[in-house]
């Protein structure tokens, strides 16, 4: 009888170790899933930031072309510039939605600085090239 009890005790220990090992694997998988979800959110935020940088560059390029033109933009050219500004504003909104809440203040500051930088450019665009302030197109 003693051997039978010892055998059951050993089997119970093996079963307990197997269960603890399985629980450890499950805990590790849950932890990995959390890191994967966080990484996925950060990748989405990085993509939004890259698209924002692209939109700002495209807006700047269009405005530089318009600032170097001899006459103020009219008609389709003015509508294109307004569309570029609108697309950049939409990219800012999409970036704010993708970023963690802790970054909202920084993005709001950048958006405010961009709006401040747009004001003199928009004013200069309404003037002919000869009357524009020096260095506006830089």
Features:
single chain, 138 residues, mainly alpha, 3 helices, 0% strand
Written account of the structure:
- The chain has 138 residues and is an all-alpha fold.
- The protein is built from three helices and no strands.
Summarize the topology.
Blueprint: H1 2-68, H2 76-98, H3 104-125
Brief characterization of the structure:
The protein has 138 residues and is mainly α.
Largest sheet: none
Count of alpha and pi helical runs:
3
**Poorly predicted ranges (pLDDT <50, ≥5 residues)?**
none
Cα(first) to Cα(last) distance is 95 Å
Shape: rod-shaped
Radius of gyration: 30 Å
Q: How many beta-strand segments?
A: 0
Strand share of the residues? under 5%
Helix content: over 70%
H/E topology pattern: HHH
> How would you state the average pLDDT, rounded?
87
Class by SSE composition:
mainly alpha
């Amino acid at each position: 009888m003693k051997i039978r009890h010892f055998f059951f005790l050993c089997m119970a220990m093996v079963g307990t170790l197997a269960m603890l090992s399985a629980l450890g694997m499950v805990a590790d998988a849950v932890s990995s899933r959390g890191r994967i979800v966080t990484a996925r959110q950060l990748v989405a935020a990085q993509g939004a930031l890259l698209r924002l940088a692209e939109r700002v560059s495209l807006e700047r390029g269009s405005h530089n072309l318009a600032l170097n033109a001899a006459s103020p933009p009219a008609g389709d050219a003015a509508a294109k510039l307004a569309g570029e500004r609108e697309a950049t504003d939409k990219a800012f909104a999409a970036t704010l939605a993708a970023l963690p809440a802790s970054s909202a203040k920084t993005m709001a500051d950048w958006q405010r600085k961009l709006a401040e930088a747009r004001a003199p450019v928009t004013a200069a665009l309404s003037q002919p090239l000869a009357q524009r302030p020096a260095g506006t197109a830089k």
